[in-house]
Structure formats: C-alpha cells, structure tokens
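re: the backbone from monday

yeah here it is again, tokenized this time
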C-alpha cells in the first residue's frame, strides 16, 4: 500500500472514530444551553460553552476537509469572507503553540481588508499548517519572529508567511516532495503536500520564495471578483 493510500485509509477511520464523540459533545452542550435551567448558568460559563461548541464544529469541518481532499473531491463548498477573518481563524488554531513560544504574536501587514471566495475552513488549515511549520523552524531562536504580508497582485490576493528561520537551497528545491521532512523523526513528509493540495482545491497556489535570507511561503488565492465557479454549501 502506498503512503498516500495508507494515509487515506487511516484518516477515514480516524474521522469516523472522532466524529462520534464530537457529536456527543455538541448534543450535551445543546442540552445544557437550551434546557429550562439554562437561565441559571452564569454568562461567563455560557460564553465558554459557546467557544467549546464553535471549536468542536471546526474540528468536524477540518476532518471533512481532509477526507474530501484525500478522496479527490473536486467540488468545494465555498463562501465569501474577509482576509482578516481568515487569518484570525488560522492564528487562533495556533494559539496554544504561540502561547508557549518566544515570539508573543504574529504581525500581520495588509493595505486593506480583501475579500476572498473559497472554503474558509480549508484555507484556514493552509495558514495554520504554515504557521505551525514556522514555529518549528524558529524554535530556540533568541530573536524569532513570524509575519504575514497581504497584498493584491494580478487580481489575486497574495499572502506571504515569512519567518526568521533559514532554509538551504537544496531543501528549498525539494521541499514539496513526498517523504521529505525537516523535522527528523517527528516529521512524516506529507504536511506541505497536503497544505499545497488544500490551496489548489480552492484554485490557489502555494510556493516558496526567497526573502532576504529568511523563509517565505507565498499563497495566492482568488478574490471575489475573479474567483472561478465553486459549489456553494
């Protein structure tokens, strides 16, 4: 069995096993917040339950996205959303790791808040994966940093995720090849390939660019005005 086939098989089983307890969590939250005693629950607790509900639904959507990608589903359930909301969602996914890192926060530079069209969950995963990779790359650096630059280029929205790490020219050339990992025994050599596939499923591109000695991944995505046809959910 190929690595890709094995990944699809394992992910399908994992998605089924994970979805069942997630449904139980959602049902229990619904029961608590809509029951006759819900008015007695402090507002602060209700807000925390809503956050749990939101992230539980997000996990379900992520698993659905990965399964669709591995199953070669070409149709994408799309919506229109703002770049700021997209990046906020991706950064939120990385919050636990960011809180343990030395960089404090990720700097975002953009001239205006662009609108995009695609599957927001899938594209959030693209940036969350790139940010997690960046956190791995700068681990242990004294003056580590990560920044995201957003601009409009040729009727596309370009996102550059740049970190203070370095990458050899040899690795830069081979980075998207199956089985290549820069994380030693902790890596599987599939993360960037899946990330690029998620971008491409949304009519986008993921490439690595030179950036004054640092590491820069560029993601280009269609804006609202020139996005191709998607299937809307």
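seq for it, each position gets an aa:
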């Amino acid at each position: 069995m190929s690595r890709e086939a094995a990944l699809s098989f394992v992910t399908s089983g994992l998605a089924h096993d994970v979805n069942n307890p997630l449904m139980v969590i959602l049902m229990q939250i619904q029961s608590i917040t809509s029951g006759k005693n819900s008015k007695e629950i402090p507002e602060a607790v209700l807000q925390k339950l809503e956050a749990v509900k939101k992230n539980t639904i997000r996990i379900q959507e992520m698993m659905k996205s990965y399964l669709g990608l591995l199953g070669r589903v070409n149709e994408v359930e799309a919506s229109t959303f703002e770049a700021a909301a997209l990046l906020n969602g991706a950064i939120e996914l990385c919050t636990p790791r960011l809180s343990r890192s030395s960089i404090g926060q990720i700097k975002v530079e953009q001239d205006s808040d662009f609108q995009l069209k695609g599957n927001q969950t899938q594209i959030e995963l693209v940036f969350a994966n790139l940010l997690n990779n960046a956190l791995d790359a700068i681990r242990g650096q004294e003056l580590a940093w990560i920044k995201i630059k957003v601009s409009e280029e040729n009727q596309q929205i370009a996102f550059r995720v740049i970190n203070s790490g370095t990458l050899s020219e040899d690795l830069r050339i081979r980075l998207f090849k199956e089985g290549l990992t820069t994380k030693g025994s902790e890596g599987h050599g599939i993360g960037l390939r899946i990330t690029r596939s998620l971008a491409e499923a949304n009519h986008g591109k993921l490439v690595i660019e030179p950036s004054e000695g640092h590491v820069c991944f560029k993601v280009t995505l269609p804006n609202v005005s020139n996005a191709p046809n998607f299937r809307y959910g």
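Helices lie at 3-34, 43-70, 83-93, 95-100, 120-137, 169-174, 191-201. The two ends are 34 Å apart (CA to CA).
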